[in-house]
Amino acid sequence: QVQLVESGGGVVQPGRSLRLSCAASGFTFTSYAMHWVRQAPGKGLEWVALISSDGGSESYADSVRGRFTISRDNSKNTLYLQMNSLGAEDTALYYCAGQISTGYWGQGTLVTVSS
Amino acid sequence: EIVLTQSPGTLSLSPGDRATLSCRASQSVSSSSLAWYQQKPGQAPRLLIYTASNRATGIPDRFSGSGSGTDFTLTISRLEPEDFAVYYCQQYGSLPLTFGQGTKLEI
Questions:
Q1: Mind listing the pLDDT tens digit for each residue in B60-74?
Q2: Which of residues 34-93 of A touch B (CB under 8 A)?
Q3: Host H or E run for residue A93
C-alpha cells in the first residue's frame, strides 16, 4: 500500500537549520510531483513547496522562499525539505504529499522552533 | 496569489442533514483545479474531491463537488456521524498553491 513517512522533525533553536525527509513506497515515486504542506498548532493548512517529478522544477510559498529548499532523490524514493534560518513562525507539523489528484499524504513530522 | 474564502466558518448540523460548504476564489481557478479535503483531529488531511467534481478513490457518493471559475461547493447529501470534521478547499491551478481557512462541521 502507499506510504509516505516523514522524519527529521524536532526542537530547534531560532536561526538554526533542519532537514526533513519523506520516504515513499507503494507507488511509482518517479512519476509524480511532490509537495510539502505544513500546519501550525491549531491552525489551517499552508502549502510550502512543490517539486516536479524529475526534480527539475521547484516552487515555494513566499513565506519560505530563500530559506527552504525542496529536493528529491528518485533513486531512493525520498523527498527532502532543507529548512534554514528557522523562526518561531515555522513551528508546525510538516506533511509530505503527492501530486494533488493522488491523495497521498504522510502523517507528518513536528518541527518546533524554540530557544 | 489566489485567496480562497470558505463559508461558513462553522456549520452546526445533525446526522441525516444535508451540508453545503462554499469556497470562493479571489480570481478564476484555472482548469477547475480545486480540491476538497476532510481533516479530523490528529489525522492528516484526506482528499475528497479533485478538479472540482471528481471523487477521490474510496470516497462515498454522498460527497459531491461542483462549481467553476471562482465559486465552488462541497455538498454532503446525508451526514453520517463520521463526517463531522474540518473541511478545506485548495486551488492548484496557479502558483502559489493556496488553501482556504477551513469550515468546521459540528454536531
A1: 999 999 999 999 999
A2: 35, 37, 44-47, 50, 59-62
A3: strand A92-98
